[in-house]
Design goal:
alpha/beta, about 35% helix, about 20% strand
Length: about 400
């Protein structure tokens, strides 16, 4: 038996009053997803345990079959693991976004999706001007980077707000606060003159693009907990493809092979066809493959209904259409968002998400569209989504 997991990051959402009360999943044309859900078994699943942050870290950990209540200890170190950045006992790491601040407000949490080539030059300058034995910056992808700090474990007690949670919000009102926050605020302010006067930003402004003129620190954590391997836990050898460090880090933590597929990105410009082609090809040498697509979530954070619908439709037409051609007698497919990213909030919420399992051993349970409302109508609800993996691979 072969197994394929497709995570449509942030694809779920809330009814849009100015779009006849329909969600982006309902507005999108998704004949392939609808065919899968018609023949498959589905419902809703709670991917974020009650009381935990509605982050992709918690939600995707659940979909991979691991209970976040036991294993989630912070996101920064998971991304550092993906980037092979060691974290010592007295060290902490924070996600370090390059953001664009204008008139005291968060103009772009992604600096207009700055290129990795440009952002790496900015990170190099931050290291040159601010770096020390206790502080280092590590380049990631596009606007997403890592800041590692030694000797300031108190910073983990600071209350930090993710940059994508405050589109257009006041910088001053959303800075790290509480115990341990002073050092983080100092770093964020110290970054501004370095970045504002950098040639990369001068060139971006000249082209009419937003500058990356400040760092934003959040998702701090220390050393990672040990997690049992996926193969030992579920008895299958797996691989994962994603354009973001978080999912690659989670994969490495549980022993999934991280696929290197050209064109896979963490934004709406992802090569959907290339990603699914490489992922399906990996089924020849692996029992299970996970494909994570970030695009719907990015569109949700940007508040773009049209971009989110387009991302969902491209996943359907370029990815799910390929999955439908797999042999249902020897293959199982699990499809789900990790969490909703409603257009209204432009950030994650902890609501349950729709899911479907298709293939050998599963049959339809009365729905014809892959939407939030249709999933609820089944009456099937899995209150701890990490239990889905057992059922998916035939252990539960």
């Amino acid at each position: 038996m072969k197994y394929f997991v497709l995570i449509m990051d942030g694809a779920a959402g809330w009814p849009l009053p100015h779009r006849d009360g329909r969600t982006c999943l309902e507005l999108a044309y998704t004949p392939n997803l609808d065919a899968i859900v018609t023949d498959g078994w589905g419902g809703t699943a709670r991917t974020v345990p009650v009381g935990m942050e509605p982050s992709s870290a918690c939600a995707c950990m659940s979909l991979l079959g691991y209970d976040p209540r036991q294993y989630y200890k912070g996101r920064g170190s998971i991304e550092a693991r993906s980037m092979e950045i060691p974290v010592g006992k007295e060290e902490v790491v924070f996600r370090c976004n390059l953001v664009s601040a204008r008139d005291g407000r968060m103009d772009s949490y992604a600096s207009g999706y700055i290129s990795s080539e440009e952002s790496h030059q900015l990170i190099a300058s931050l290291n040159e001007r601010l770096g020390s034995r206790e502080l280092s910056f590590h380049p990631g992808i596009s606007y997403r980077h890592i800041c590692k700090i030694a000797g300031h474990e108190e910073t983990l007690d600071a209350v930090c707000i993710p940059a994508h949670n405050i589109p257009g919000g006041s910088i001053a009102d959303n800075l790290p606060s509480g115990e341990g926050s002073e050092y983080l605020r100092e770093l964020m302010f110290a970054s501004q003159p370095i970045l504002e006067n950098h040639p990369v930003n001068a060139a971006r402004v000249a082209r009419g693009e937003v500058p990356a003129n400040m760092i934003w620190l959040f998702w701090g954590s220390g050393q990672l907990p040990e997690m049992p391997s996926f193969s030992d836990t579920y008895g299958v050898r797996g691989a994962i493809t994603s354009g973001v460090d978080l999912l690659q880090g989670l994969g490495k933590m549980v022993g999934l092979h991280v696929l290197d597929i050209p064109g896979v990105t963490g934004d709406i410009w992802n090569d959907y066809a290339g990603q699914i082609g490489g992922a399906v090809a990996a089924l020849e040498s692996h029992d299970l493959v996970v494909a994570h697509v970030e695009a719907p979530d990015e569109a949700g954070h940007d508040g773009s209904i049209d971009d989110k619908i387009e991302a969902i439709e491209r996943i359907d037409s370029e990815m799910v259409s390929v999955l439908r051609r797999l042999d249902p007698e020897s293959t199982r497919i699990l499809i789900a968002p990790d969490h909703p990213t409603p257009i209204e909030t432009q950030t994650h919420v902890a609501d349950p998400v729709p899911f479907v399992i298709w293939g050998a051993g599963f049959s339809g349970n009365g729905v014809s569209r892959f939407t939030e409302a249709e999933a609820v109508s089944t009456g099937v609800h899995v209150d701890a989504a990490h239990l889905l993996m057992d059922k998916f691979v035939g252990r539960g």
